[in-house]
Amino acid sequence: MPLLGKKADKKLTKLFFATDVHGSERTWRKFLNAGKFYSADVLVMGGDIIGKMAIPIIREGAGRYRATLQGTIHHIEGEDALKALQGRVGFLGFYSQVMDEEEYRALAADPSAVDRVFHDLARQRLSAWIQLAEERLSGTGIKAYVTGGNDDYADVLAVIQEAGAQSIIDCEGKMVQIDDDHTMISIGLSTPTPWKTPREVSEEDLWVEIEKMAAQVPDPSKAIFNFHDPPNDSTLDRCPMLDWDADPPAPIVKAGQMVMHGAGSKSVRRAIETYSPMLSLHGHIHESAGIVKIGPTITVNPGSEYGEGILRGFLANLSHGQVGGYQLTSG
């Protein structure tokens, strides 16, 4: 493939795509820095923005605290140690809240209160991320287009719309013009998973949504499909088959080997085969990083290692409906 290089054509647009940061402070900062690092004009975030859990940090008096993180009870003392623990929690993509023992016990006895705290913390972090993006991207000309994923609650995603940001653009459910030649449509929904995440729909309903969005595209050959769910049986959706009846869902093992399968969406694959966009961006299945072609469409899942603070991405040159140099990135 052609190498990524300096712009030789004023109409060339360099795009950087990443997805599935799941609340990780480090990977979000790396995403924002990718514009400058890769000389990208456009950043695209493909969904699953929020974290997966909140960690209570319990005050024990006299500057002492305790918290259970990744199965280990941590006892710490002093404000510096507290900040370090909070930083580690954020690095992993979790949220944290300091509270007294009495407050902790009251929360533990009230699942609805736990849910409210989680949503509040998720909204606070996303709001802080948007503010950081405005600081980092202001005056650079770089735009960051952000969609949610199946793990992202609607009330948390609403923060993007409420912020009135100039550099962060809520693109879900919309057609956006990313430059003079190229458009993009974005859908963050997924088909059903064993985890029963907040934004799952049937294949039939996803196809209806895709058709509604595709109808807005003036020229599919110059379009980008930014769909969180990867296409079925594309190698970008390969993962262990799970027993949905187990709690939690567990991998199915036969003859000592985990059974692997394509867990992506048939509707997304049908959309790519029907409309042949120039580029199709996906996530959702963290372990299936790769680039494949479905017909003429370059189809991508950069994968995700957010828990290790690694940002996996995809970088491409776009010009006149063509995807020039492109590559997966990791850093």
| Classification by helices and strands | alpha/beta
Number of domains: 2
CATH architectural designation of the largest domain: 4-Layer Sandwich
Instruction: Return Rg in Å.
Output: 21 Å
Question: CATH homologous superfamily name of the largest domain?
Answer: Metallo-dependent phosphatases
Determine the fraction of residues in helical runs and give it as a percent range. Answer: 25-40%
User: Span from first to last CA?
Assistant: 21 Å
Taken as a percent bin, the fraction of beta residues is 25-35%
- Output the number of helix runs: 7
SSE order, as H and E? EHEEEEHEHHEHEEEHEEEEEEEHEEEEE
- Rounded mean pLDDT is 95
Task: Tell the overall outline.
Answer: globular
Strand order of the largest sheet: 8-7-2-1-21-22
Biggest sheet features: 6 strands, mixed
CATH class of the largest domain: Alpha Beta
Q: Let me know the number of strands.
A: 22
The CATH topology of the largest domain is given as: Purple Acid Phosphatase, chain A, domain 2
Uncertain ranges: 5-9
Question: How are the SSEs placed, and which strands pair?
Answer:
Elements: E1 13-18, H1 25-38, E2 42-45, E3 54-61, E4 64-69, E5 72-77, H2 79-91, E6 95-100, H3 101-108, H4 111-137, E7 143-146, H5 154-162, E8 168-170, E9 175-177, E10 183-187, H6 203-214, E11 223-227, E12 238-240, E13 242-243, E14 250-251, E15 253-254, E16 257-258, E17 260-262, H7 266-275, E18 279-281, E19 290-294, E20 297-301, E21 312-319, E22 322-330
Helix pairs in contact: 1-4, 4-5, 6-7
